[in-house]
């Protein structure tokens, strides 16, 4: 038996449970995290008492980890300080990019400074608006019955990223936080509406395509601010009145 000190990725990795319903699953998920060396448990809008006796019983030696869980009203808030969020799904969804095998995104996770793994509610899994906040989605390959128990999914996905063998350097990438990126996407969406690039009907689909493209860029925080500088300049120009040949020039300074 080997038990090394937690790797840098294990120390920085957050496991996010979205709206779990069963205390026993939350406790078992905490245990799985401790087994794999992770410790940052985040729960979004729990539908039960996460410190219920069933949860504590299933956590066994992970009671402290369970008690130190942080509770958030929304997924967006739970991900705000993360620089990578990885969704998990049992299903392949026709309208979203195909989920990948966890081994294919191991490098991405290990290079991140503050990654998050996001797990869905027991009955429904993550909804599309949750998965849209994740840059990549992974699926554990299974037999025909694809829906794993929540805590077992936590165990397997954490294993892939934390104990699976790999020589990818850890923490070698510095990218913008999800808070920076979400603010930038909000700004981009407002600008698209302002200039009539998209409308309320097509907006969601349009943003999904743009998010996928810009998330692939793994922007730094400074680059996300530079992009927003361009958007501010567009708004300013539009407000000057379109078609007018303006001699006045106001250039947004690049940070
Ligand atoms: N019925 C739901 C499954 C919910 S299981 C569905 O079809 O999507 C609860 C959670 O466990 C899922 O949201 C996901 O986070 C995780 N999970 C279950 N099976 C998985 C699998 N095969 N691969 C990756 N994650 C899985």
Automatic annotation (TrEMBL):
* Keyword presence, Cytoplasm: yes
- List the record's Gene Ontology CC terms alphabetically: cytosol
Q: One Pfam family from the UniProt entry? A: SpoU_methylase
> Where is the protein localized?
Cytoplasm
What GO biological process terms does the UniProt entry carry, in alphabetical order? tRNA nucleoside ribose methylation
Query: Mind listing the UniProt keywords for this protein, alphabetically?
Result: Cytoplasm, Methyltransferase, S-adenosyl-L-methionine, Transferase, tRNA processing
Q: Name one GO molecular function term.
A: RNA binding
Under Enzyme Commission nomenclature, its number is: 2.1.1.200
Summarizing the function annotation, the protein's role is:
Catalyzes the formation of 2'O-methylated cytidine (Cm32) or 2'O-methylated uridine (Um32) at position 32 in tRNA.
Q: Which family does it belong to?
A: Belongs to the class IV-like SAM-binding methyltransferase superfamily. RNA methyltransferase TrmH family.
What protein am I looking at? tRNA (cytidine/uridine-2'-O-)-methyltransferase TrmJ
């Amino acid at each position: 038996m080997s038990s090394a000190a937690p790797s840098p990725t294990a120390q920085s990795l957050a496991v996010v449970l979205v709206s779990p319903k069963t205390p026993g699953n939350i406790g078992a998920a905490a245990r799985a995290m401790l087994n794999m060396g992770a410790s940052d448990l985040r729960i979004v809008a729990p539908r039960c008492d996460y410190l219920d006796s069933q949860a504590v019983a299933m956590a066994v030696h992970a009671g402290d980890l369970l008690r130190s869980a942080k509770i958030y009203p929304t997924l967006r808030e739970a991900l705000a300080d993360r620089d990578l969020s990885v969704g998990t799904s049992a299903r392949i969804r026709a309208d979203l990019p195909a989920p990948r095998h966890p081994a294919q995104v191991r490098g991405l996770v290990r290079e991140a400074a503050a990654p998050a793994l996001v797990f869905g509610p027991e009955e429904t899994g993550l909804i599309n608006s949750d998965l849209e906040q994740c840059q990549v989605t992974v699926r554990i390959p299974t037999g025909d019955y694809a829906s794993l128990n929540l805590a077992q999914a936590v165990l397997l996905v954490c294993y892939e990223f934390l104990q699976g063998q790999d020589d990818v350097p850890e923490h070698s990438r510095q990218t913008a936080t999800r808070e920076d990126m979400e603010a930038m996407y909000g700004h981009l969406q407002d600008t698209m509406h302002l200039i009539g690039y998209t409308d309320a009907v097509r907006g969601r689909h349009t943003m999904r395509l743009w998010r996928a493209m810009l998330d692939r860029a793994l922007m730094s925080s400074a680059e996300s601010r530079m992009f927003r500088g361009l958007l501010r300049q567009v708004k300013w120009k539009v407000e000057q009145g379109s078609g007018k040949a303006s001699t006045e020039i106001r250039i947004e300074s690049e940070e």
